[in-house]
Structure of Bifunctional salicylyl-CoA 5-hydroxylase/oxidoreductase:
Amino acid sequence: MRIACLGGGPAGLYFAISMKLHDPSHEIVVLERNRPDDTFGWGVVLSDETLDNLAANDTVSAARIREHFAYWDDIAVIHDGVKTVSTGHGFCGIGRHKLLVLLQQRARELGIELRFESDIPEARIDELSREFDLVLAADGLNSRTRQHYASHFQPDIDVRACKFVWLGTHQTFNDAFTFIFEKTEHGWVWAHAYQFDADTATFIVECSEATWQAFGFGEMSQQESIAVCERIFARHLGGHALMTNAHHIRGSAWINFPRVLCERWSVDNVVLMGDAAATAHFSIGSGTKLALESAIALAAYLHSEPDMASAFSRYEEERRTEVLRLQSAARNSTEWFEQVERYLDLDPVQFNYSLLTRSQRISHENLRLRDPAWLESAERWFQAQAGNPESDRAPMFAPFTLRGMTLSNRIVVSPMAQYKAVDGRPTDWHFVHYAERAKGGAGLVYIEMTCVSPEGRITPGCPGFYAPEHEVAWKQLCDFVHAETPAKLCAQIGHSGPKGSTQLGWQEMDAPLPEGNWPILAASAVPWSERNQIPKAMDRADMDRVREEFVAAATMADRAGFDMIEVHAAHGYLLSSFITPLTNRREDEYGGSLENRMRYPLEVIRAVRQAWPDHKPLSVRISANDWVGDEGVIPDEAVAIARLLQAAEVDIVDVSAGQTSTRARPVYGRMFQTPFSDRIRNETGIATMAVGNIYQADHVNSILMAGRADLVCLARPHLADPYWTLHAAAGLGDSQCDWPQPYGPGRDQLQRLAERGEGWT
């Protein structure tokens, strides 16, 4: 084939090399707009895995690149005057200029034509696609090719919030990849610093838009901007200057990072690669990795597939998965830095852990593999903060106290509807179900949403707190759990609102009953869906009656023996219907602004708090994101909601999301709702519970150790395994959990199997 590579960066050069290695008869020309010695970055970071991939593809260039690598194993975090170092991270860096020179040399050896100072205007791209069999568009972040075929590629460009500038220095930071956080008169400024050759390091300076504006960086020249950065980081630079190689850019050279993702990567014989196709934020250092590994993949498919279209399809299918995986990690990392000021008051131990695990690529147990000594010291710190200074157990096994209730660990069995009640009365099913989970080792066990009135039930199978026989059944459960286990019990009380009078969960969820429907209430006469009945918009008499039903339910839960109570104000039920503007259309003092929409829920919550004993904690569950954009509750508003709950003497917020509208479009993933808990906890100071696709002990420990929540709720895992906590403890080598005495032989066998790396089936 005759091939034109637009762009002489790592992607274009390495693709050309890879194609020549597959078939030396290819005629390849690389067209680069800059001169051969120009470079506008400093160092790039690669992993050992990427080096191995390069070596398998081309031993010659891989060996030359490896000769020029700077290696380091440690990450250092300098925060609040404390330098924290962890090891086992395995990085290597090389100067971008040196990498390009080595790839240019290898390309020439293979007979590839390199044309520098060849600026290809957008008007010539169609001409090139006719002249060559294949056009590789590796023309960078501001790709003209991507722009030219924008209607086909459909690029999605998300400009991120922070400002950054890419600098270099002869202060090498040769002992670790170093993060430095400095508090200035205008706010926090931080640096990402790493060595890439014997006497030079990359030094990326980053800050929020507000801090950038306050410094006036936008009005400065590059040298003026650099002088300010040198002053900010003077005590870390050892007398060395900061340097720029972006003299071609006017002004201070600060930019916002654009995250690029294209719907398609090829059109006819033109294909995108590198930053032209997708970008990954510099805080995870994977842009060059993506480019090099994409070059290897496409070259291979062009020689293994029957035609170019098939090769492009395979390339995009394989590489898109990897790109999305890295972009997900990069998004997590980017957002952490964008929101870093909420974490800067954390203890240096917890701050360091939060930074190391920010992308979710490094988990708790992965960190143990990398640096067991540091993680063990961090776990001891966490236990000490929990009042357990002699313990070295994992965070999930730290005690937690709210008012007069102390939990033996941080695991919560989430409320999960069973739909097995008869006229609101819990049955033997409920007793067995909840007793088993209490025996399973969790610190706190919820009962499902228990309704404050017959009309407040979601389904005919939902339990209640409104008849004497309900109290008798719940008291039997509480007495058993308190006598036989260390678990505490939480009663979640609620009113179904517009989602009431519907079918059982395993029938048709949230659909009206075929017959026998009862009248329902809501903030406004807005049905859950077109099929559901229109609820009555509550008047003042309805509000007074329902408030007193909540109070009566709370009083009954106290008499039954529950240790904690939660008011359900999420998921589109009655109180939630007031909070979200999607269903609150009221024009009185209970509608409109957030303060008005919260007025009635807070009235109920304050009444419950007054009726509930002072020594017992009160929780409220909220939906922190309606998942419909600005039309509904967004995370910013969830923080304001949490502050109002805090003022109403709520002790902990159970942070869920969604289920408030059929229009919701959640973004799922591991621990997908935890960021909402994280934000509320670290911006307001109120305790939180995290919930949502959390299913491994690793998830739990990572959430707790990073300070993203105080308690962690697991729902489906406890349906599959009532003894999840005890089994997780055995898997972690922890033998200190309380097992029911009759189950001792099973505990002993499980622990022996776990020690041998086995399990049971």
